[in-house]
Amino acid sequence: MIRAIFFDIDGTLVPFGSHGIPEEVKDAIAEVRAKGVKVFIATGRHPAWIDNLGDTEFDGYVTVNGGLCFLSDKKTLIYRRTISTPDIERVIPFSHETDIPFVAIPIDGRIFINRIDDGVRHVMKLLRVAHIDVADLETIGGREVVQMMAFGTEQERLDCGLFGRVLTDCEPTSWNPYFCDIIPKGSDKSVGIDRMIEHFGIDLSQTMAFGDGGNDIGMLRHVAVGVAMGNAEADVKEAADYVTAADTDHGVVNAFRHFGLI
């Protein structure tokens, strides 16, 4: 019996380039909630960047890849995990030596980037982010940072030693070739899921998750039933228990019907 369902946002609940959750998905979520199933968001976005879910109600939010977990009001914090101070102290001077753009995501949600290039503009358009403040990475000195983002290719990040000698207590997770999310080692969506179901008294054997990106692989393997969207990459599909149709082709609704949830 499924008692909790976790949804990635971009490419899962909200098709890329669209304005929000399709109406049929909204109706299906409302139907399973009416049956007593808890529904949650599990996203790489900070709550300050969750602006595309409309009026659909959720029972909680696993955000910044598991680093911040909130209840339905988006204010009651039940779990937090931040990037270590030594890593922050190393990445600030490093940001002055490289052309890699970095996004810093402090716990307070006042997100900023140290520089904007064409790659950043492409991702901002993809995520429908209209504006982001530009500031030197020095701005995060002394502040709690829950996640960062680094742009450029994986090879560029490897060549400069970003994770080998700078962010040694962090690891990358990615769902797009233009950038990676930077999270503390051992912190991913599955950790946030565990904290959320512990709060609600739900067993892991009663969980399901939907995702499409590389940062969803951990949670798809972790939950009882992992569902990959038809638009997901091959490695995401391999990590799932079931592959449904694409986000633009009734994927969530078809999976709900397959598992008898609606």
How many helix segments?
9
Report strand order across the widest sheet: 5-4-3-2-1-12-13-14
Largest β sheet strand count, sense and barrel closure = 8 strands, mixed
- Mean pLDDT value: 94
What is the SS-derived class? Answer: alpha/beta
According to DSSP, the number of beta strands is 14
Low-confidence stretches: none
The SSE string, one letter per element, is EHEEEEHEEHEEHHEEHEHEHEH
**Distance from first to last alpha carbon:** 13 Å
Characterize the quaternary organization of these chains: single chain
What order do the helices and strands come in, and which of them pair?
Layout lengths: L3 E4 L15 H12 L3 E5 L17 E4 L4 E4 L5 E4 L4 H11 L6 E5 L5 E2 L4 H9 L6 E2 L10 E7 L2 H6 L2 H5 L3 E7 L2 E6 L4 H12 L6 E5 L5 H6 L2 E4 L5 H6 L2 E2 L7 H8 L4
Parallel strand pairs: 1-2, 1-12, 2-3, 7-8, 12-13, 13-14
Antiparallel strand pairs: 3-4, 4-5, 6-7, 6-9, 9-11, 10-11
Structure description:
- With 262 residues, this protein is of the alpha/beta class.
- It is 29% helix and 23% strand.
- It is built from nine helices and 14 strands.
- It has helices at residues 23-34, 85-95, 118-126, 154-159, 162-166, 189-200, 217-222, 234-239, 251-258; strands at 4-7, 38-42, 60-63, 68-71, 77-80, 102-106, 112-113, 133-134, 145-151, 170-176, 179-184, 207-211, 225-228, 242-243.
- The strands form two sheets. Strands 5-4-3-2-1-12-13-14 form an eight-stranded mixed β-sheet.
- Helix 3 links the parallel strand 7 and strand 8 (133-134).
- It is globular, with a radius of gyration of 18 Å.
